[in-house]
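Quick illustration for those who missed Monday's session on complexes.
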Amino acid sequence: MKQDPKLPLKFPKSFLWGAASAAHQTEGGTHNQWSVWELENAKALASRAKYIHGHVPKWDEIKHEAQRAENYVSGKATDHYHKYPEDFAILKKLGMNSWRFSIEWSRIEPEQGAWNAEAIEHYRTYLQRLKVLGIEPIVTLWHWTQPVWFDRKGGFMKRKNIQYFERFAAKVLDELGRDFRYIVTVNEPDTYVGQGFFAANWPPQIHSPWKGFVTLLNLLTAHKRVYKLAHSAGRKYKVGIAKFAAYHYAGDDALLSKITAGLAKWGSEYFAMNRIKKHLDFVGLNYYRALRYYGYRQHEAEDYVNDMGWEMQPGKIEDIVKDYYDRYNLPIIITENGVADRDDEYRKWWISQTLMALNRALQSGVKIEGYMHWSLTDNFEWSSGYWPRFGLVAIDYKTGKRHVRPSAAWFGGVIKKIRS
Ligand code: BGC
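Prediction with beta-D-glucopyranose bound:
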């Protein structure tokens, strides 16, 4: 399974090589709608762990962690809020020149209309540090978390609340906008809605497809408004979203399986994109998994699955970028891509397959401008908590120590070779 990428990998000189993260999953000490939900649900998640995660290949290894309520409370996370200089030094060591992160709205505007000068200053220093290191920031404005006051007003379920997000975006541009060019307005709005309103196992846990649908439309409107706002500001921003992308396929030859795979692909890949395609400077794609359909349902694969039970077909990223490029003719940045792999068994293979696939797509004319691996370090994986390990760098949660995994050291070498 392990394989080194076949050289030469001809990536453009200006290619962004980096890693991606999100505030709530790394910073620690965030107070937002999600942290409130965690405290209310941690015990229930721990007691239902076997039912939710019992099927994953390493259940025996993770069950102790997954059955503890602490696993489900983000708490101090990786303490990236304080340890970012250390994390940036690792990025640099790995030869990376880009970093995707999110600015936590609940820090900037903890109460409605009250701006927190200290938090703004924090992100200013943070961005300046990136500049000094020659690392291009990609700034996400909404990565699923929002201030409690905004959530209590109904969040993105209500169209009239979009103005608050616009105001936050305007504040960020005004205060910090000189220090970045790339903006990801919203991260995977479809996943948030699918999990929050259809499956209803994430906040706001409202089982209402209709409310979910309205929320999705509002998030897309929010994206469009911030796109316009950024372009009306003097500087030349590049504005995109981070879009969930998967490889959808029928598990057998039955017509129904094929129809289901086709419909799922349309709903999941194109529905949102078709609504915002005129308001994008680039498409950010988050690719993690293949989704297999039998009959009218999705079935998890049994083989080639990562620690979370997700089917791994890294090479399919080639088909995905080609498809998005053919349809939308926009530059692509891989805003997330990675694998839950606590024992570092698959990561090298995954990255290697991915780079070869991207290389093939590039050579066939697809415009790909960057690759952000998810994630630099292990972090808080939403309702699954801490046990899934996506990091190039392992975190020892007891000591906070960072350990570069072997696959990451190898990846750093590949990046340096390509960039040299
Ligand atoms: C999200 C990340 C998450 C990752 C792995 C993406 O959908 O944007 O926040 O950690 O997937 O599940």
